[in-house]
Design a protein that fits this description.
Elements: H1 2-13, H2 25-42, H3 44-54, H4 58-67, H5 72-101
Length: 103
């Protein structure tokens, strides 16, 4: 499932070990939210660095944090998952194009 793959990548960036085979998407999402909350409280610069590496648009982040009634850690987690899903889709498109050119 692509959502779990996106979660796995996000958790690895946060230096957490995901246990994706044991828990549901929602449980893993909660793990991601918790890790982000810890970074907000203890190492905000590391969180900013991770968001930069993932390539989350700064304006989109600011807008989401301002407009979304959810806690910031939850909003950031959802943006991370969304961005990782985009990357997965782009990689699949690129692989499909490369495979079609090899024929």
């Amino acid at each position: 499932m692509e959502e779990n793959e996106a979660l796995k990548w996000s958790l690895q960036l946060l230096e957490n070990q995901p246990y994706l085979s044991e828990f549901s998407f929602e449980e893993n999402r909660k793990q991601l939210i918790f890790a982000i909350d810890q970074l907000i409280q203890n190492d905000f610069s590391k969180l900013i660095n991770i968001l930069y590496r993932i390539d989350i648009d700064e304006q989109k982040l600011k807008t989401a944090l301002f407009e979304n009634p959810l806690p910031p850690s939850e909003t950031i987690a959802d943006l991370m998952i969304e961005r990782q899903l985009q990357k997965i889709k782009f990689r699949k498109i690129y692989q499909d194009r490369n495979n079609n050119h090899e024929i």
